[in-house]
Amino acid sequence: MTDVHVVGICGSLRDESKTRLALERLLEASRRAGATTELLGLREYELPTFDADRDREGAGDAESLAKRVREADAVVLGTPVYHGSYSSPLKTAIDYCGFDEFRGKTVGLLAVSGGAFPVLALDHLRSVCRALNAWVIPHEAAIANSGSAFEDGSFVDEKLEQRVATLGRRAVQYANIEPDPDSFESDQNVGAEGK
Fold first, then answer.
1. pTM of the entire structure?
2. Bridge-based pairing state of the strands 141-143 and 150-151
3. 108 within 8 A of 126, measured Cβ to Cβ
4. Residue 138: burial class (beta carbons within 10 Å; 0-12, 13-18, 19+)
5. Would you say residue 181 has pLDDT above 70?
6. What does the alpha-carbon distance between residue 86 and residue 121 come to, in Å, rounded to a whole number?
7. Could you tell me whether strands 150-151 and 135-136 are parallel, antiparallel, or unpaired per DSSP bridges?
8. Which of these, 75, 103, 104, lies nearest to 9 by C-alpha position?
C-alpha cells in the first residue's frame, strides 16, 4: 500500500504509558506495511473539557487535533482502561471531532488495562465510532495486566505483540475500504454535525 497515512491517538497522559508503548509497536507495523505514521499523544495537546457552546477554533489545540484526524486515512484509538471504559482525555479528543473527521474513516481500537478485563472499553469505543459512521476494523487489540505485559519497554508475550502488530497492518490494509452503510445511531447524532 502506498499513500496511506495512519494516525495513532494515545489517550493516556502517563509518563510511563503502556498505551503509548503499544501504539509505538503498532505504528511500527503500519510503517513496515508501507504507511506513513504519526503518534498523537494527548498530553501534548491543550484540550479543555468539551463545551458545546465553545467553537472548536477557540478551544486550545482542538482544531489542530481535528485537522490531523481529518487528514489521516486510518486512525487507531489507544486508551488505558479507567473504571471499565476509555479515558477522559480520549473522550474529550473525540468530542472535539465529528463526522468530518470520522465519517467513512477506518478506525482501529486498542485498550490497555492494569487488570484483567479491557474489553468493555473497546465496546464503548466501537459504539462511539459507529455513531460517527467510522468503519471499525473487526480485529482489535486488548492488553490485560499491563504491569507484567512489558519489560524494559518491550512486550513480554510474543503472541500479544503480534496481535498489536496485526492491528497496525490491518489499519493499512483496510484504510481505503468501502465503508459500511450509515449506522442507525448516526442519524440521531446531531452533535457531530458541523464540527
1. 0.91
2. unpaired
3. no
4. exposed
5. no
6. 5
7. unpaired
8. 75
Task: Return the closest-CA partner of residue 137 out of 107, 113, 110, 112.
Answer: 107
**In this structure, are residues 80 and 118 in contact, taking their beta carbons and an 8 Å threshold?**
no
Rounded to an integer, the average pLDDT of 75-83 is 96
Q: How confident is the model at residue 118 (pLDDT cuts 50, 70, 90)?
A: confident
Domains parsed from the chain with CATH numbers? 5-183 (3.40.50.360)
Q: Are 175 and 74 in contact (CB under 8 A)?
A: yes
Distance CA 105, CA 182 (A): 12
- Cell of residue 148, nine digits: 507484567
Residue reference for cell 502488530: 165
As a whole number of angstroms, the longest Cα–Cα distance in the chain is 47
- Give dist(CA 68, CA 5) in Å, integer: 10
How confident is the model over 140-155, as pLDDT tens digits? 999 999 989 999 999 9
pLDDT tens track for 30-66: 999 999 999 999 999 999 999 888 889 899 999 999 9
d(CA 160, CA 113): 13
